[in-house]
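Batch manifest, entry 17 of 40.
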Amino acid sequence: MQQTRAQQALTIPRPSPREAAAESLAEIEAFTALLADLPDEEWNRPTASAGWTVHDMVAHVVGQHVESARPWTIPGKIKQARRRFPGRTTLDAHNALQIVEHGTRTPAELRASLERFGPKAVRVRLRAPGFLRRRSVASTFPEENLPDSSFAYLFDVLSNRDTWMHRLEIARATGRPFVTGEHDRGVVTQVLRDLAQTWPGPSITLELDGRWALGEGEPVAVVRAGTLDYLWHLSGRDGDPALDIDGDPGVKAAVLDARVVF
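Output type: structure tokens
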């Protein structure tokens, strides 16, 4: 059987604001569906994010969406986080503040907040004017090395990716299945686009749920991996994804050394 030709990952387009909004609504629905099945005692389980329980992680995700729905509050939150957690990066301090602010809420209250503010946050991001989408986030999060520093990237790519990865963490922490749908492909392909922008190795074909070309020229190897396991690894979380390599075995180091911002 003839194999499907690999698509060059660098050519993957960014989602339009409406496409990103649709993916975001689908991810919020998947996230809340996962939480609906969790008994209260499982909210205390540790996750792959060091020091964070399931409850902490949901508090962070809720905080992100509450602030996105009320963007005028964000500058004050950033200042408060920097004062309260000196010595941390702005992003780490901001995350910690969200856990403090929402961490005393019950699981039922957190679920209700996400159901209320999640769709509002999506609508606010969708309505963001062009001049704001083009602005750089560097002044807000100066320590972060992003492949695209625009607010458009934050709104359309990173926001969905962050929620998606935290859903995967919660699923794995609690032994629940990670239910996928059409929107998951959008998250995965944007990870592959970012991976291609900084790909350190020779040209390869990477087979996850599809076939993707990384690097220029003829591929020296075909690498197969589980999609969830490899994205988990790309995010910097502990794990040893199983790789099946046809061709130059030397590409293994590049495949495992690569990282993508989540």
